[in-house]
Design brief:
The complex is a heterodimer of chains A (158) and B (429). Chain A folds into two domains: 58 residues, Orthogonal Bundle (Arc Repressor Mutant, subunit A), CATH 1.10.10; 82 residues, Glutaredoxin (3-Layer(aba) Sandwich), CATH 3.40.30.10. In chain A, 47% of the residues lie in helices and 11% in strands. Chain A has seven helices and four strands; from the N terminus they run H-H-H-H-E-H-H-E-E-E-H. In chain A, helix 3 crosses helix 4 and helix 6 runs parallel beside helix 7. Chain B folds into three domains: 212 residues, NADH-ubiquinone oxidoreductase 51kDa subunit (Rossmann fold, 3-Layer(aba) Sandwich); 90 residues, Ubiquitin-like (UB roll), CATH 3.10.20.600; 90 residues, de novo design (two linked rop proteins). Chain B is built from 17 helices and ten strands. In chain B, the strands form three sheets. A four-stranded parallel beta sheet of chain B has the order 3-2-1-4, sandwiched between helices. Chain B is globular and about 75 Å long. The chains are: A alpha+beta (158), B alpha/beta (429). Chains A and B meet through helix 2 and helix 5 of A and strand 3, strand 7, strand 10 and helix 13 of B. The structure holds flavin mononucleotide, iron/sulfur cluster (SF4) and FE2/S2 (inorganic) cluster. FE2/S2 (inorganic) cluster binds next to helix 5 of chain A.
Amino acid sequence: MMFSQETESKFKHLASLYPHKRSALIPMLLVAQKEHGYVKPETVEYVAKYLDLSASEVESIMSFYTLLHRNPVGRYHIMICTNLACMLRGSDEIEACVQRKLGVRFGEITADGLFSAIEFECLGSCTTAPAMQINGEFYEDLDVRKVEEIIDGLRKRA
Amino acid sequence: MYELVLLKNIHDPRAADIDRYIELGGYAASRKVIKELTPAEVIETTKQTGLRGRGGAGFPTGMKWSFVPKDTGKPIYLCCNADESEPGTCKDRVIIERDPHQLIEGIIIASYAVDCHQAFIYLRGEFSLGYRMLEKALDEARARSYVGRKIFGSGFDLEIVLHSGAGAYICGEETGLIESLEGKRGHPRQKPPFPAVQGLYGCPTVVNNVETLANLPHIFTRGVEWYKSLGSGPKNTGPKLYCVSGHVNKPAVVERELGIPLPELINDICGGVRNGNKLKGVIPGGSSVPILRPEEIDVRMDFDSLAAKGTLLGSAGIMVIDETACMVRLALRTARFYAEETCGQCTQCREGTWWMEQVLHRIEHGQGKMSDIRMILDMCSNMKGVTICVLSDACAMPVEAMINKYREEFEYHVTEKRCMVGTKSHAHA
Ligand SMILES: Cc1cc2nc3c(=O)[nH]c(=O)nc-3n(C[C@H](O)[C@H](O)[C@H](O)COP(=O)(O)O)c2cc1C
Ligand code: SF4
Ligand code: FES
């Protein structure tokens, strides 16, 4: 069994929502990623078959979308906005702080597998800048101390 | 005192619950529209209000709907553009997260107007909370038969599908959105044919922005005259959301009439430039529009007043920039965004954005030549008006304006190999 019952039933639901089931492709990949942390090659095969597409077609479409990961990321994946509004309010310091706390460069995973971080484009949080997301949840009005606390908190929780 | 319309519920923590939303007067407008008006009347009323799209282009909403052919035998689709990704913009998110039923009502009214029975909300993949809020709100509306079959006990069926994107700015462009919704790469399509004629799955399709749709319940509650009483003129009517970010004391998503004077927004509502610093410039409509210098900011925030100043209302993402910011760095960050987000179909856009980033990077890091500045300006003119969609223009226009209006900073970077502002040296050579 590759996916949980819950994921399987979500697949079924998604494929039934659209006039053409292919429309479910990206939502299905997102659901699969939620379960595995990234989109595994087997997932690509599976979803392709599910929607009557070829695996290479799915691969090529997937590469267009930045939220779909083809490789594992940390259990906590940090996306730091570095676009204009955040830059104006100090995203440089946020970036530096995250890298210092994690001890890895952007795109890498910490040795314990807990964290990874990347620079990101505008998150839609410009009036509460600087901002970042961790696993899809917003962290806003950041400063260095807040970021340190957030990361320490997640470490403790793990 | 301005009375809030679009944001009137957002400080009520329960407004996202359907019971509370109904208590606050919700679903009366959409019910009335469906039970008492014909689709043609809905289109006509919307035309009379002068409502123009809030997604960036400012196209008259009623007119857009009237382009949808009625007799093709094909289904008609409505796509709510909730992809909000224009740098500097965070207004749709407020509606989605805090007053999702307002948006659903708007979708119901628009769908009825164009005879759509299946609508899609294309939601930015990053908006996880927004997804949960909309999912719950849709479930609540379905349970009451406000969405689904025979809504409000009428003969009108409407299903609304919540669809998550997965991180690609270009999927906010309406034909990129449609391609993406079809399960493909979000490559914009050549127009014509326009989506109204041939959109999703080859069928007539209307794409409307979240804020545009959120206007509709209020129009059908309070009427055309009321709506037109808001705004700065007959072509710029209604309430408007402004996202004021950057170097102001109180950044905020603010609702006022369309066409509020920009200085009033910055100084009276958002507390002015931080630390009493000097203003350097204001980007008034998201990162895709030309910057205004301090002497140009005495302008009304509406479609036509900003166009007269050579810029655009765009997404009304207002980024305020004080004297401490380096314009070269802002230009580089702007170019980098578009270089990242180009879909690559058009040579001018793919190569132009890439080159622009390279050359600006050179200048920013003290390795530029005077001829580089000229070269970027040439690139900018070659990138405008020649591509499938306007992302290419959206890169060229703001960068061109930054160079033309703050040229001395770019030249200083070339000759002195450092920033004109601050003390940081960027010379790496
Ligand atoms: C590169 C690009 C990105 C866009 N992104 C968005 C977006 O995130 N949200 C949006 O509503 N419109 C966006 N638009 C505008 C849409 O193409 C379209 O004009 C709009 O959704 C129409 O809705 P409206 O008439 O209600 O404004 C974008 C346009 C371009 C060229
Ligand atoms: S202008 Fe740029 S983003 Fe738009 S279709 Fe062409 S290459 Fe793609
Ligand atoms: S620029 Fe950072 S959230 Fe918009």
